[in-house]
Amino acid sequence: MSVGVARVLVATTNAGKLRDFGAAVAAEAAVELVPLPGLGSIAAPDEDEESFEGNARIKAIYYSRFAAGEIVIADDSGLEVDALGGAPGVRSARYAEDCGFVLDAPVDERNNQCLMAAMRGVPTDARGGRYRCVLAAARDGVVLAMGVGSVAGRILDVARGSGGFGYDAYFAPDGGVESMAELDMETRMGLSHRGRALRDLLPKLALRKPI
Q1: Per-residue pLDDT tens over the stretch 144-166
Q2: CB 122 within 8 A of CB 140
Q3: Can you say whether residue 20 is alpha, beta or left, with left for phi > 0 and alpha for psi between -120 and 50 degrees?
Q4: Which pLDDT band holds residue 9 (cuts at 50, 70, 90)?
Q5: Using CA atoms, how far apart are residues 200 and 89, in angstroms rounded to an integer?
Q6: What is the dihedral of CA 87, 180, 191, 89, to 10 degrees?
Q7: Buried b vs exposed e over 91-122: b needs ≥16 C-beta within 10 Å?
Q8: SS3 139
């Protein structure tokens, strides 16, 4: 850790999430994000809440107990589709399981197949939705602050682009015609719901450089 920089531990091994969070604080000299040490060997907690907020709190409280005295942040995030009543929502990473898609294919591919099946026949003007992220920061099992970020858009009927991950190839942010997977890295990072949630969270932690 650099001298005069506050350290915040991130409870995720997801490379895409770490990239989003890192880009969000690239210009924030007072904060250094570091993956929670030993996370891969820690059994994951049950994420049994029905909201992003609830699951983010569960994870932050749980993982903060493995790093005494440190601030640990954890997120819950996903895609909300208006025509599906907000689904897949908190089940975004496990949507294929809910749909019964058990094909021998990567999880993102299976989740997207499930989404396309659910959206079959939904007209263009009813395909609105949003990516949403809620971040919780905790220390020693106590939640310190929450942050929220979202980006609105629409669900495409065919995949476009090869960047990003998750549902990005099927999601086009409002104000443009390109999918998230077609956008260049800088633009995509600027729109990131995770980045927005982190930028909402950090000021609430009142992090200061040590004197």
Answers
A1: 999 999 999 999 999 999 988 89
A2: no
A3: alpha
A4: very high
A5: 21
A6: 10
A7: bbbebbeebebeeeeeebebbbbbbeebbeee
A8: strand
Query: What DSSP character marks residue 97?
Result: H
Residue type, 26: A
Q: Give yes or no: 184 in active site.
A: no
What distance in Å separates the CA atoms of residue 59 and residue 73, rounded to the nearest whole number? 8
Tokens of residue 89, six digits: 């929502």
CA distances from 1 to 8, 22, 36, 198 (A): 10, 15, 14, 19
Residue 90: other Cβ atoms inside 10 A: 24
Q: Specify the CATH architecture of the domain 6-205.
A: Alpha-Beta Complex (3.90)
Quickly state the pLDDT bin for 36 (edges 50, 70, 90). very high
In the predicted model, what is the mean pLDDT of residues 83-97? 95
Is-above-0.90 flag for pTM? no
35/42 Cα distance (integer angstroms): 13
Closest CA to 84 of 132, 122, 112: 122
Q: What is the pLDDT of residue 62?
A: 98
Greater confidence (62 vs 187) lies with 62
Q: Tell me, what's the pLDDT at 211? A: 32
- The single residue of 75, 76, 168, 200 carrying the catalytic annotation is 76
Cβ atoms of residues 140 and 69 within 8 Å: yes
pLDDT top residue among 190 and 60? 60
